[in-house]
């Protein structure tokens, strides 16, 4: 069938949902063109169907597909930031990485290699997971491309700085400890946001602090409010190259039930989106949204929330690139 698209700013845009019903056809993120349908792309969206690193409920391997399906309702103009993210620059869906589900080490190597390939032309990468294990190779690629350790804002109920699970060093609970050990994040500018829930012990927090992480808990977001939290985060990041990793379980299970390790007392999707919008202008070099496990979702709640988080992250990337151009 012919694809009628909203082409603005000289870029190939999303399929026009006023001409072709939004539920028709195969899903790409936001109905954007596939990467092979454009000459090149400034922002690439890629899926990583991998969940071999999980410690509890499996299923995040289906996350990217679910987020794409849930993204059909997105529209081309983002009024919250007064930006048309797909008109500013070319945005395209690069499909999924082919990742070995039976070998975590090989999977991590594949993800790093693919992320480097996708960004070789200077493109910004928006990754949809997959479990949180994948943040490590994505951070490796981001810091290699930046030529320096990157600042990190990590939105998550969990610290994910634990040391190992069952003797395994590479899991969804350990990527950020590995990242600190590898020197790929700038420990003057790393922070968790949305942290909550029971830990194994107080040592978890002591270790985390020693690694350099700041913590803004879910309760802090509620008590201090979005603007105050944004000011703290902006101050901490400064003008460093910034990577943002969003574990969808940062949202309360009421907002995002479809995830593997849910914790009560989380942020609302409104708080999450408003914090992201507050980060406008920071030097965002890459981002991921992970831990969407559709088997536990209801009424596409988690898929919709994740698709909107991606949309605001892409808007930040697009706005940044347009302002530099
Ligand atoms: N959802 C992520 N990334 N990590 C959660 C690990 C929680 C645990 O098993 O202790
Ligand atoms: Zn988590
Ligand atoms: Zn996580």
Automatic annotation (TrEMBL):
SUPFAM superfamilies attached to this UniProt entry: Arginase/deacetylase
GO molecular function annotations of the record: agmatinase activity; metal ion binding
UniProt cofactor(s): Mn(2+)
Keyword Manganese: yes
One of the GO BP terms on file: putrescine biosynthetic process from arginine, via agmatine
Record's cofactor remark: Binds 2 manganese ions per subunit.
Binding positions (Mn(2+)): 132, 156, 158, 160, 247, 249
Pfam families, sorted: Arginase
UniProt KW keywords: Hydrolase, Manganese, Metal-binding
NCBIfam families linked to this entry: agmatinase (TIGR01230), PRK02190.1 (NF002564)
Stated family: Belongs to the arginase family. Agmatinase subfamily.
Name of the protein in its database record: Agmatinase
Source organism: Zhihengliuella halotolerans
